[in-house]
Amino acid sequence: MKNISNYVNENKDRFLNELIDLLKIPSISADSAYKKDVIHTSEVVKTRLEEAGCDHVEICETAGYPIVYGEKIIDKNLPTILVYGHYDVQPPDPLNLWNSPPFEPVIKKTEIHPDGAIFARGACDDKGQMYMHVKAMELMTKTNQLPCNVKFMIEGEEEVGSSNLAIFVKNNQEKLKNDVILISDTGMIAKDVPSITTGLRGLSYVEVEVTGPNRDLHSGLYGGAVANPINVLTKMIASLHDENNHITIPGFYDKVEELSKEERAEMAKAPFSLEAYKKSLDIDAVYGEAGYTTNERNSIRPTLDVNGIWGGYTGEGAKTVIASQAFAKISMRLVPNQDWEEITQLFKKHFESIAPKGVTVKVTPHHGGQGYVTPIDSIGYKAASKAYFDTFGKTPIPQRSGGSIPIVALFEQELKSKTILMGFGLDSDAIHSPNEHFGLFNYYKGIETIPLFYKYFTELSK
Amino acid sequence: MKNISNYVNENKDRFLNELIDLLKIPSISADSAYKKDVIHTSEVVKTRLEEAGCDHVEICETAGYPIVYGEKIIDKNLPTILVYGHYDVQPPDPLNLWNSPPFEPVIKKTEIHPDGAIFARGACDDKGQMYMHVKAMELMTKTNQLPCNVKFMIEGEEEVGSSNLAIFVKNNQEKLKNDVILISDTGMIAKDVPSITTGLRGLSYVEVEVTGPNRDLHSGLYGGAVANPINVLTKMIASLHDENNHITIPGFYDKVEELSKEERAEMAKAPFSLEAYKKSLDIDAVYGEAGYTTNERNSIRPTLDVNGIWGGYTGEGAKTVIASQAFAKISMRLVPNQDWEEITQLFKKHFESIAPKGVTVKVTPHHGGQGYVTPIDSIGYKAASKAYFDTFGKTPIPQRSGGSIPIVALFEQELKSKTILMGFGLDSDAIHSPNEHFGLFNYYKGIETIPLFYKYFTELSK
């Protein structure tokens, strides 16, 4: 392909400013207070896809937030790439830990990003990575180099479980027909170590509620005589892991795929420094399931983490109260073969069963999704590998990610096509955390690498 | 004493309206946002004491909120009663559980209070009970029946530990010299069962903080590989009780006073229905330390309760995050002979010692106080007993309370005088809870009973 880097260089300021405009809109799908902003974001994405050269761009309404669809069909006989991404973002709190407001993007140099990185909620997950595809599309159309057909499907509910996208996909199999699905919503091992994500963890996210007395009580008059919902909740949550940090929910591990010695040896080759890892987090030790390495714990092993807990008096000073209720949000990361709906039921059954007398327990499933593994001998994987080699000068490393993109397993099931996960973010980019950012180097590299994937996927498909 | 009930009857509307005005001021000492209101409340109390006939009423400044002092010395040779109360109140949250705004008092009839009760934060604890003493003072002076000397000391930091009152008492032993201390900040067994509180539990209140990684992390990328501060906090708190609900802090029980069979048998005579107790709280079972009854668990046994817990994402929807920090407010109720400062140190030492690698733990003591027991053969107790008999037609039952008034032990230590706890509230009055209230019957009965205590205490002191 000609002049890819020239085109990127000539337009890099505009590419950046367009992304900044997109990042200024607080499209927080988890908080209904931002509904207007989320919908406005979908309209901006529609306009950008049209400008990039897509036809029939439409805002597809759902029971929740809309899905933006656009396509460019140049020849029915050529392969079709379906690009998926999301325009919604995670809530930014805790706000006090941001060095600059989450929706006022700023460019700052960092040790890892000497060319500068753009700091804003969604910079990496996923507005920045999604927008690389929009700009790559512009590049290919404006330079008359689009080698195949392309379809865009950009949703607004990825951070809350994509439940409406699932329905949309089931109802639009013909419209979404494709030969490969291309997603940039994952990371790469390091700035100079390209990698392709070959596995994702599944997810089950639940909220639990423990109710004791019918009102808050004075801890002096009732302390020690009635079940304290907060104490009970801590005991129940604590019991979900044993002394080896194995999860104690009966049946939880039944379907977990155990990797072979060889596979684990292969994984262990990925460059990783435990010291640097601990230093980057300011921790004196890692912590996790006995018998597994850090890289195994956060990729091939299932986990259970409390994502939020609250109850009683949390304000300034002291209040001697026994709260009537206590709450927690709990998520489980699942590995291939674990069915998220089955795990959710196992959790519910177990958690309700360990409730002591004197309290009632309610478990409310939030959302979830299956894990996913993609083969490394597919045309899509090979095309991605060649594209990375051209732009990074290195063959990318296949890598299992600990993250979840619940929709990927569903894509394969409904659309019968494989997904290629070309991620350009870094673990240190703080996605889902305060001060999320995305390196400008990575942003532009992505825009250069994507067209090459189109080229090689078309060639290898012949 | 003449015409006590006549005077109360003739003035009951004014007595009620004055209390309502006092309850309208949100004097929340735990929340600095209400500083103005707390100070304003002290000024109103000063005026009311002057109107009731006190001399030399002054607002005594402290490092925190002021103490209102007033006195009436009629004859150096007569005994002196020191009345203590507090004008600050607990925070009202959770606000959504109040049926009427906490600082907009309303009168409503209830099953237990057919004559009506006044609903507002502080109605019972302690503005309502404190104001009974102001009105009893008015009654005695206006009807020229004050039989002895009286001193009032009304503070504004009881709900946050009375640390400045402690200093004030130490520095003003001569000014506060008295023969007995009279406090209405406790309850009675039932509306028709008067009781005198002969014991109070001590208190140690701490805040704990668990810090893991230096920032919130994506639970997919880091889940299972680093210590999750919330999971760790739940494990640490859960470990503070064993399977018999004994507290596991080494040395915690060393100085606990064990009651004799006889004393426990005596206690067991107090009217109590476990069924009614459970029904009033909507719980199917009580819960507590093995080997003790409900009444023992919340009076003669020490306890440990979490009063508040928070960490991670607690907003609407789902956020797959591992929080950098988790927090809890924990209070321990102590029994006589347990030293609160020693227990606080034992807690700190133990809690820090059980922190796993990968997190740091900080324990911050909030405040505390010693427990207290008063003999039932003192002049003060006998005077109170006779006063109750006159107004209720029944001899009051001596009762150990589970609550704490940290300052009482200090009074005895610094002022060398015993405290009589004449409480007129009911456990069901929901102090420290939403919809706190105080029965009008109890309010007026208190105003009638207090002057009789003055009378009998003076007579028995001759």
Automatic annotation (TrEMBL), chains A, B:
Entry superkingdom: Bacteria
Pfam families given in the database record: M20_dimer, Peptidase_M20
GO BP annotations, alphabetical order: proteolysis
UniProt KW Protease keyword: yes
Record keywords, A-Z: Hydrolase, Metal-binding, Protease
Peptidase M20 dimerisation domain boundaries: 199-358
Claim: Metal-binding is one of the keywords in the record: yes
Gene Ontology MF terms: metal ion binding; peptidase activity
InterPro entries (UniProt xref): Bact_exopeptidase_dim_dom, Cyt/Met_Dipeptidase, Peptidase_M20, Peptidase_M20_dimer
Protein name as catalogued: Peptidase M20 dimerisation domain-containing protein
Organism encoding this protein: Bizionia arctica
